[in-house]
C-alpha cells in the first residue's frame, strides 16, 4: 500500500566541469538540507573534509549536518531502494541524486518514474542542470548528453558566470531555446533551499505553442501545451496517443492539469518515453490559476505534430484536425481519474 507521503527525489546533473560538486558541497553544509539523503557515485567526489562524519555504515555516511551521504557505485536504483527500505530508521525527508557528468538523465528519470520498488514510496521532485559559462556553449555543441541534460531540466543554473560574464547572455538564450519550460538562473544566487529541487516552484515563461531552437540543437525541440479545465479521460487519451505516436522521441512530458472532476487539486503529469508516472495531486494551486499547462520535450520529432494532437483533444473541431473521439480509442482511460 502506498505510503502517505512519498519521498521527493531531486536530480542534480550537468556535464563534466559544470560545478556540481561545488554546489553539492554548499548544500550539504547548510542546515536547510538537514534530513536529506544524498546519492553520489563515490564518496571521494564530494569534498566532505570540512564536514564531520558522525557514523559510517557500509556505503553510507551520516553527517553531523543532518545529511546522509550514500554511494551508488553504479547501481542508482538499488541505492534509492536501499534508502527507502531504511527510511524509518534514517529519518530523511528527501533524496538528492548527483549524476555523473556524462550521464543522460532520461534513463534515471525512467527508473524513478516506474521502478517497481518506488511505486507509492517516492516521487520525482525536480531536475536541476548546471551549465558552465566558461565552456557551456562548446559543450552543448559537442555532446548530445549535455543537450539532453538541459532539455530535461526543471531548473538550469549557469555556473562560473564571474569567469566568463560576456558569455552568459548568449548561453542563457540558448538553453532557454532548448528548454522553454525551465527556470534559468545563476548558481551563485541559488539559495540553499530544498525547494530548488521542486519542479512545481520553477517559474517558466508561458509560450503557448511557440518553439525555438539553436542550429546545433535541431533534434531537441519543446512545445508548451495549454488549456483550461480538462476532462481526465480525455487527458489520458492525449497522453496515450502522444506516447503511441512519439514515445521513442518523447524525452519528457511534464506539467500540471486542472481536471474537471477535481479542479481544486492540480494533477501532476510526468512521463518519459512510453512510461507514465502514477498520478499525484497537489493540495491547491500555488499561483491561484487553475489551468492545464504541460510541456513536451521531443528528440527528433516535430513539435507541431504534438501541438496538433493537443488541439485535436482540446481545441475543438476544425478542418483537417484529427477527431478526438476516434483518437480516444488509442487507450489511456482512467490514468488521471
From TrEMBL:
GO CC terms, sorted: cytoplasm
Stretches assigned to the CobW C-terminal domain: 220-314
A single MF term (Gene Ontology): nucleotide binding
InterPro entries: CobW-likC_sf, CobW-like_C, CobW/HypB/UreG_nucleotide-bd, P-loop_NTPase, Zinc-reg_GTPase_activator
RNA-binding found in the keyword field: no
Keywords, alphabetical: Chaperone, Hydrolase, Nucleotide-binding
Pfam families attached to this UniProt entry: cobW, CobW_C
Coiled coil: none
Catalytic activity entry: GTP + H2O = GDP + phosphate + H(+)
Family: Belongs to the SIMIBI class G3E GTPase family. ZNG1 subfamily.
Function recorded in the entry: Zinc chaperone that directly transfers zinc cofactor to target proteins, thereby activating them. Zinc is transferred from the CXCC motif in the GTPase domain to the zinc binding site in target proteins in a process requiring GTP hydrolysis.
Name of the protein: GTP-binding protein
High-level lineage: Bacteria, Pseudomonadati, Pseudomonadota, Alphaproteobacteria, Hyphomicrobiales
Amino acid at each position: 500500500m502506498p505510503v502517505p507521503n512519498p519521498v521527493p527525489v531531486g536530480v542534480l546533473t550537468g556535464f563534466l566541469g559544470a560545478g556540481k560538486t561545488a554546489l553539492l558541497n554548499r548544500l550539504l553544509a547548510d542546515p536547510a538540507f538537514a534530513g536529506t539523503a544524498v546519492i553520489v557515485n563515490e564518496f571521494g567526489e564530494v569534498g566532505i573534509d570540512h564536514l564531520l562524519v558522525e557514523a559510517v555504515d557500509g556505503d553510507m555516511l551520516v553527517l553531523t549536518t543532518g545529511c546522509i551521504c550514500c554511494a551508488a557505485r553504479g547501481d542508482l536504483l538499488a541505492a534509492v531502494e536501499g534508502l527507502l527500505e531504511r527510511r524509518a530508521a534514517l529519518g530523511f525527508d528527501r533524496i538528492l541524486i548527483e549524476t555523473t557528468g556524462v550521464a543522460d538523465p532520461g534513463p534515471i528519470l525512467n527508473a524513478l518514474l516506474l521502478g517497481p520498488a518506488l511505486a507509492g514510496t517516492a516521487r520525482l521532485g525536480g531536475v536541476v542542470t548546471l551549465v558552465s559559462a566558461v565552456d557551456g556553449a562548446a559543450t552543448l555543441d559537442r555532446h548530445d548528453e549535455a543537450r539532453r541534460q538541459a532539455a530535461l531540466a526543471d531548473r538550469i543554473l549557469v555556473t562560473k558566470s564571474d569567469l566568463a560574464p560576456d558569455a552568459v547572455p548568449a548561453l542563457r538564450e540558448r538553453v532557454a531555446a532548448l528548454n522553454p519550460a525551465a527556470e534559468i538562473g545563476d548558481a551563485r544566487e541559488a539559495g540553499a533551499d530544498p525547494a530548488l529541487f521542486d519542479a512545481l516552484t520553477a517559474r517558466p515563461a508561458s509560450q503557448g505553442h511557440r518553439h525555438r531552437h539553436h542550429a546545433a540543437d535541431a533534434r531537441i525541440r519543446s512545445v508548451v501545451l495549454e488549456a483550461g479545465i480538462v476532462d481526465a479521460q480525455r487527458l489520458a487519451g492525449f497522453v496515450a496517443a502522444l506516447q503511441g505516436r512519439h514515445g521513442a522521441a518523447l524525452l519528457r512530458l511534464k506539467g500540471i492539469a486542472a481536471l474537471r472532476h477535481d479542479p481544486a487539486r492540480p494533477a501532476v503529469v510526468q512521463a518519459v518515453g512510453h512510461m507514465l508516472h502514477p498520478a499525484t495531486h497537489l493540495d491547491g494551486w500555488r499561483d491561484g490559476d487553475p489551468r492545464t499547462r504541460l510541456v513536451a520535450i521531443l528528440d527528433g520529432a516535430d513539435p507541431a505534430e504534438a501541438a496538433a494532437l493537443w488541439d485535436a483533444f482540446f481545441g475543438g473541431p476544425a478542418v483537417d484536425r484529427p477527431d478526438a473521439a476516434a483518437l480516444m480509442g488509442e487507450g489511456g482511460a482512467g490514468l488521471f481519474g
